Amino acid sequence: MTSIGLLGIAGSLRKASTNRGLLRAARANLPDNAGLEIADLADIPFYNQDLAEKPASVIRVLAQIGAADALVLASAEYNYSLAPALKNILDWASREPDNALLAGKPAAILSAGGGMGASRAQYHLRQICVFLDLRPLNKPEVFANAFAGGFDVDGNLIDEKITGLVGESMRALVAAVAARR
Ligand SMILES: Cc1cc2nc3c(=O)[nH]c(=O)nc-3n(C[C@H](O)[C@H](O)[C@H](O)COP(=O)(O)O)c2cc1C
Asked: How far is the centre of ligand 1, averaged over its atoms, from the C-alpha of 100 (Å)?
């Protein structure tokens, strides 16, 4: 039975995204009592304080974030930082009164990018988590090289070592949720 609901959010919008591949690997390596949905950010506009009403696409993803017991954030690295699509949905989510969608919520962080596994992006994301009061796991750190044969052409994770780390991360995340209850 699924009693712990996770939401995966990837910063890359492309079909064969390796970061979306990391989220699918997370979904395939969950403890039995957890389920994972993957958010679709393709139609999320840039945050604009002038918008009087939130677009339906934003309302949809914010509802998913609010309903999730924990987040799984997967960031590509763009020019030494996290991808803007991920930052943008976190910006939208952060504007809810009292930071109700994010405050205290556990999160796992995964990343795939160039030779350093998008580590620079991941550490920028960890800095953002401080202000958002998200509670990212420290361990295991999951950095995947997207260009070294660890993913197939569709962005599916095929590297056994990284798959093991993703599973370890999901077990730690579910344990963090259980510890809050
Ligand atoms: C605009 C842009 C900037 C990038 N900058 C970096 C970078 O600074 N460091 C890095 O490791 N990879 C960089 N890359 C490569 C991406 O991290 C790599 O293509 C990654 O696989 C993208 O994630 P995805 O497969 O989920 O789309 C960049 C790619 C793009 C499109």
From this structure: 31
Residue with CA at minimum distance from ligand 1 atom 31: 78
The span from the CA of 82 to the CA of 91, in Å, is 13
> What superfamily in CATH does domain 4-180 come from?
Flavodoxin domain (3.40.50.360)
Does 1 have pLDDT greater than 60? no
Ligand 1, pocket residues at CB < 6 Å = 12, 14, 17-19, 76-80, 112-114, 116, 118, 146, 155
Single pTM value for the model: 0.98
Cα–Cα distance measured from residue 124 to residue 145, given in angstroms and rounded to the nearest whole number:
18
When pLDDT is cut at 50, 70 and 90, the band that residue 181 belongs to is: confident
Cβ proximity of 102 and 134 under 8 Å: yes
Name the β-bridge partners of 151. 157
